[in-house]
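Following up on my earlier thread - several people asked me to post the actual chain instead of describing it. Fair enough. Here it is, all 435 residues.
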Amino acid sequence: MYALSPLKVYVLDRVNKDKRRVRRMERMLKALKNNPEVIVIKDSNLPEVMDELNHLWPPANPGDTVKSYTRPLVFTTMDLSYRRKELGPLLKRCPAGTSQGDLGKIYGYMETAIDQHPHLKDQIDNCVCWPTYNFGTVAGCSHGCLYCGEGREAKLISIALNLEEYMEKVVGPVIEANPWEKVFRMILGGADLITLEPEYGLFDLFTRKLAEFPGRYGHFHTGSSNVDWIADLKYRNRLVGVWSVTCNSVARNIEQGAGGAFDRFDAAGRVQKMGIPVRYKFKPVIPIKNWRKEYTEAIDYALKHTSPESIGFCLYMWNTFESMSHALPLEMLDRDYVSAARKDAEKMRDVKTGPFPHEVRREIYRFMIEQVRKRDKKVLLYVSTETREMWDELKDELGQDPRSYICGCGSLAVPGKKLAICPGFKYSTYNPTPV
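Reply from S.P.:
Thanks for posting it. Predicted structure:
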């Protein structure tokens, strides 16, 4: 796992009730770069702990350590009860400034599984994707990407340790109840989960659970180059590797703590040699001043060193001009595109694909499609979570039908550039209904 240097480590007292959880935590503690104090959280000392967490991070001077690597860790167990207890009484005991979200992270009130991108919601949002179930056991991320609220501002990373229980009570039943879905994502909580492997052991258990169901696979979705442990997984053939990739300047200055831009392609090459399918998403594409040169270099390197099954594109979106101004250093970005976003700020305010207007996004996509096609005529291309209008304009250049296309982490995108459509589920959310 990453050589994290958390300012402090906390553990909820109920963790100690199970030896498997304790052993998992001890493995992770040994992998830390420093030797932080470990504090047991009980109901009795909760106010003091929350007061400390409210003021502990970010550090005034992280020194040579990546700032996001110093974020406090909280070891907990995910609450898998049918009805979770109200946190209100505990919140009342905590100091001012304590959020219910942070309290929920400590007590394991995480999302267990999400039905992501259902057809009706994507129709309302004008978003083209594939419905899929997402799993996750961590809230918060080791990376410090400026465009991500968790990476930029979260006070802690919460790590659930009851993974065996989670596999039996959540993952297995969701897989069994949804025979139409062939590939599931391990992605929830804003977490890049492979950064904690192999000490965490999540993907060993996940692949073992997937192996119980014929023809089922799991995505790991990452911006990391921490992959060598995958070779030791007994059921690594159940994995599909999906990388969020970018150019050098964005990786260095905006995705702080993540893998280097070209390091990710090298990691994908190692995974490909293990027999695992590799897919890329240039997501988010951030139009820095010299974006054409830098993204061309990234595309060239990727296609010289690996053979991805698919490559997707998604511009920086899900933001307003104001939120982009808060998150990103605008002085790094292409002046014309910043001006276009500023000019259309009101028009794009309630549009999911904001802040950049359609014309800007289309221009950038066309350039990147062209650069890929100069180097590879056959790799599958797509735009990720884009509008129907964008698909209508680019489908010929992308070479795929937006109603039924192969992407990077789609629920039907099985290994081998295949789409495992089935009766009752033939179309992406480009179509109003799944029939």
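The longest strand covers residues 278-285. That should answer part of your original question.
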